[in-house]
Specification:
alpha+beta; Alpha-Beta Plaits; Alpha-lytic protease prodomain-like; 62% helix; 2 domains; four-stranded mixed beta sheet
Amino acid sequence: MEHAHSHQHHHHKADFSHLNKAFVIGISLNLAFVVTEVTMGLMVHSLSLLSDAGHNLADVGSLALSLLAFRLLRVKSNDQFTYGYRKTSILVALFNAAVLLVSIGAIAYEAIHRFLYPEPVPGSTIALVAAIGIVINGATALFFLRDKDSDLNIRSAYLHLLSDALVSLGLVLGGIIIFYTHWYWIDSGLSILIALVIVMSTWSLLKESLRLSLDAVPREIQVEDIKNLALQIPGVKDFYHIHIWAISTSENALTAHLVFVKDLSSDEEQSIKRHLKHELEHKNIHHVTLETEREGEKPGDINC
């Protein structure tokens, strides 16, 4: 049996120092904006500002947990945690998605109540505060743009910040409409819109992180494709008992039985294994464990 730990080939790897800085800046700016929204929301009795503050506060928590998970990815493995703490990145993504969905209930309940009994709110204040949000969330999202496809948590942070910027844009437009028309029910309507945005931006993240936490095959990988890839290599008779799972939001592992055709030399077998592992790296599978056997022999008859 051979156990190889390979590194990514062509897949983009996240820049730790850049992302560490991005997370810290994002957390700081968004926390300051949450304080601003809560303060102004209470002063002018705007449910949309308070709802958005709750949304942004959840995102601050998400960013903080994502930063923790990102740092834990770099912690070395030990005798008790042989893969290190990589799995925390998946669990954090799942927790972040669940928290955001729970927050929708409170927002929607209050919004419906306020929709039936609207209260006067200053549209100009809502628009001004929301405009600040566009700048903060938009600028912070740009920090994660180049690394968003390298990790589920980074993609989560990017999507949340981008959706926050779009929500803030909606609040600006709503504030302007309220200012000119005095349609105060728009404040509650915007709160409901925010809840819908959270659902849309979070649902796919929740499903994917739940799948990965249950050791499902990562969505971008097809087991049949992996089997066909192995069978196309000259000298390979069969490839079965294939298990593929995510050990973090950016790293995948595979175990399988590899059957060689008869009469191959040991050097040829080693060459086939190296070639297969190389091809698997291009499929975003970095940790490969192979149980090998020769055609006509029972598993375990030979060691490799």
